[in-house]
Amino acid sequence: QVQLVESGGGLVQTGGSLRLSCAASGRIFSINAMGWYRQAPGKQRELVAAITRGGVTNYADSVKGRFTISKDNAKNTVYLQMNSLKPDDTGVYYCNTAPPVSVWWGQGTQVTVSS
Fold it and tell me: If 56 and its partner were Cys, which of 10, 52, 74, 79 is the partner (CB 3.0–4.6 Å)?
């Protein structure tokens, strides 16, 4: 059974940075594309960044140029470096495969950006 554990969230001011980490219990990074998803208050969960098995990245327009997704297959960990954070980036951030597998959703990590 795959388990995904997100960490690194917190409270940050507008313009600040955070680095999120997602540790997996299995070697899914070398098999599947991975993504970081965000669920803002009152909104549906959305994909904000993805990385393929080969390392090709893709971003939602709202985070392009500010967020960077990366992974370390040896450590079974995927990262999301978030710079120039805005209040609209507030939400719970999750990692999962892209597309996601419903039973693999973790608890997520809360990111709050104050204005």
Answer: 52
* 8-58 residue pLDDT tens: 999 999 999 999 999 998 777 677 899 999 999 999 999 999 999 999 999
- Locate tokens 């327009």: which residue? 61
- For 70-79, the pLDDT digits (tens) are 999 888 999 9
Nearest to 22 by CA among 95, 91, 73, 83: 95
Q: What are phi and psi of 74, to 5 degrees?
A: -65, -30
Half-sphere exposure of 22 (CA within 13 A, CB side): 31
What string of DSSP letters covers 47-102? EEEEE-TT--EEE-TTTTTTEEEEEEGGGTEEEEEE-S--GGG-EEEEEEESS--G
Give the angle 65-44-102 at the CA atoms, nearest 5°: 100
Cα 90 to Cα 17, 21, 76, 102, distances in angstroms: 12, 17, 26, 22
